[in-house]
Amino acid sequence: YSYMANAHGAAIEDLHESYKLDPESVDESWQRFFEGFEFYQSKFGENGQPSQTEGGVYSEKEVKVRDLIHAYRTRAHLRSKTNPVRERKERYAILDLADFGLTDADLDTEFEVGNLIGIGRASLKKIIDSLKSIYEKSVGFEYMYIRRQSILEWFKKKSEYEALNFNPSLDEKKRILLKLNEAVVFENFLHTKYLGQKRFSLEGGETTIPALDAIINAGADLGVEEVMIGMAHRGRLNILANIMGKTYEQIFNEFEGNAVPDQTMGDGDVKYHMGYSSIVETPNGKKVNLKLAPNPSHLEAVNPVVEGFVRAKADRLYDNDYNKILPVLIHGDAAAAGQGIVYEVAQMSKLDGYTTGGTIHFVINNQVGFTTDFADARSSIYCTDVAKIIDAPVLHVNGDNPETVVFCVKLAVEYRQKFKKDIFVDMVCYRRHGHNEADEPKFTQPSLYNIISKHPNPREVYNRSLIERGDVDAGLAESMDKEFKNMLQDRLNKVKQLSLEYEYQEVEQEWKELRISNPSDFDVSPETSISQDTVDKIGEALTKLPEGFKPIKQIEKVLKQRKDMFFGSQQLNWAAAELLAYGSLLVENKIVRLTGQDSQRGTFSHRHAVLKDSVTNEPYNSLDYIEEGQKQNFKIYNSLLSEFGVLGFEFGYAMANPSALVV
C-alpha cells in the first residue's frame, strides 16, 4: 500500500464512500480500518475523530502508520531473531520511523490503524511494540507475496494472533523435552561409543526430532493416516531411532558390522542411506503409517521419488483423498539452494499429473554446506526463496526455540490440510561437527566453530528456559537424561527391544509376492496374447466419439485411418499397437500412467490418445470407455518438465504401485 503514502485525504475519503456502499468493494484490511474508525466515531463523536487535514478528515499520518504496518508484515522477517549462534547479516529491512515520514514525536499519538493488528486505536509506540513482538522474535514470517487474498488473510491472522498466544500444555512441553532428550542423548551416545565413525549427526539441529513428532501428531489429528518422509543422510540415524522406531539393536549392529545387507539390487548401502517403515501411535491414540524413503544419495534426488510414491498411494489406496497421506521433504540449506531438482519439484507441485495435495518442506538449516559458509554458497537471502515461485509461505524459525518450532510445524500441517499447497519451515540451527565426524570444520570456519563449541545444545537451552519459567521441576530433564542413557546402554548390552509391529499394505504385499528370477524363468515365453473380442472392443473405443463432440477436421481423418486398421486391413501402425497394448491392460483393471512432452497428442502427432473438442477444448480420453463400468485408470499427462524430476516422480510412483504400467 505504499502508493497511498502521500495520498491526498480525499482519496481515502473516496475509499470510505465505497466502503459505506459496499464493504466488500475495498480490500479487507481497509474494511478493518473503516470498522475501527466508525466504531471510534460512534463512541466518542465527531470531536474524537483523527486530526483533520486539507481535503479530508483522515490524517495522512494514519496512512503512514498503515504503511509501516504493511512494511513489518512484508519485511520484518529480515530482522527476526532466527539465528542461534551469530548475529544476522544486515538485510536493510527499511522499518525505521524516518522511512515513513514519522518521528519520535508521534510515538504517543493514537492511531485508528491499530485495528489492523487487533489492538484497536492505540499509540504509535504500542503499535510498534506489538509489531516487534509479532514479527521480530524467533519466527520470521514470510508470506505477503501470496496472491490469493483469502489465503493471505488466513495466514496473516495465524501470524498475528495465534503465534502470540501459543502456549503448549505441560504435557506438550514434557513431550518436547522428551524428544529433545532422545535426540541429544542418542547422538552423544554414538559419539562416545563409535568415536570417529561416520554417522552425519543431527547435533545442533536436534529440534528436528520434536518437530517431526509434532508434524505426525498434528497430522493424525487432522486426518493424516500415512506420512512419507524424504531426506538426505544428515540426521537420518536419529530419525530412524526416535521417529521411525527402528530398534537401537538394529542400528548398533550396523555400527558393529554384524548386519547382513540386502544385496538384491547391488552391493547394499551404508546405514545412513537406508529407508524404513513402521506404524506409530500418537499421544491421542491415532495410528499413523510412517515411511522413510531410502536415499543412496545424491541429497535432494529423492524428492520427486517421494512425491511419485505419495501420488501412487493417493491414487490406489486413498481414493484421491490427499488429506490422508502427507509428504514431508527434509532439506539441507545448501542443497535446497544449490540443486535444480528442488526447483523442478516445486514447479511440479500444482500440476494435475504430479500434485500430491501439498508438501511440508522442513529445512535443517546448518548455515554451511560441506565446508562452504552460506554467504559464499548462494546469491539469494534465503535458501528457501524457491518457495516464492509457487506462493508457498515460509516460516524461518530459531532452532534453539523448540516450542516455536513446534508452533511452526503445526501451523504448516494445518495450512497444508486446509489449502492442499506446499509450505516451508526453515529451521535455522548449526552443525556441531564437520561434514562428517572425522572432518575438522575449523579449517574453513574457525570463528563460527569457536562459538559453536561453547554453545549449549537445544535440550540444555530448552531445559533452562522451562526451569526459569517454572514450568517443570529442575530435576526432570536430568532424570530423563539419566534414564535414557541407561536404556541405551542396555540396548548395547543386547537387552531385547521390541520392534514396532508393521502391517503390510495391499501394494506392499504385491512386492512381497515377487521373487528373484532364475535362468529357467526364461526358457519359455509367457502367454501375452489377447482375444479377438478384446481387440474389437478396444478398437471400437479408439474409433468412436461421444455424441455432440466436435473434433478438428484432421482428427476425423485420423479416426477413419484407425478404423480401417482395426476393422479393415487389420494391420496396425506403431501408435495404434501402443494404444491397443494399453487398452488390454486397462480391461484387466490395471493402472496405465503415461507422462512426457506432448504425450497426449504424441510428439510427432502420432498418438492422439486424448482428443480435444474444437469448440469447448474439453478433452476426451478414448481408452477410458472400452467397456461399461470401466474404472478410469488411463492417466496421461503432458509435461515439459526436466527429465530428472519427472523420471524420479515416475520411479516413485512405480515403486509404490507395482501393478501399474508407468511410462
Can you characterise this structure?
With 663 residues, this protein is of the alpha/beta class. The chain has helices spanning 9-21, 28-44, 60-75, 124-135, 149-165, 170-193, 208-221, 236-242, 248-256, 302-316, 333-338, 340-348, 402-419, 446-454, 458-469, 476-492, 506-513, 532-543, 553-567, 574-586, 643-656; strands spanning 110-111, 122-123, 139-142, 226-231, 276-281, 287-292, 325-332, 360-365, 368-369, 372-373, 394-398, 423-428, 592-596, 610-612, 619-621, 634-638, 661-662. The strands form 5 sheets. It has an 8-stranded mixed sheet. A 3-stranded parallel sheet has the order 16-13-17. It has a two-stranded antiparallel sheet with strand order 1-2. Strand 5 (276-281) and strand 6 (287-292) form a beta hairpin. Helix 5 packs antiparallel against helix 13 (402-419). The longest helix has 24 residues, at 170-193. The model is unreliable at 1-6 and 44-57 (pLDDT under 50).
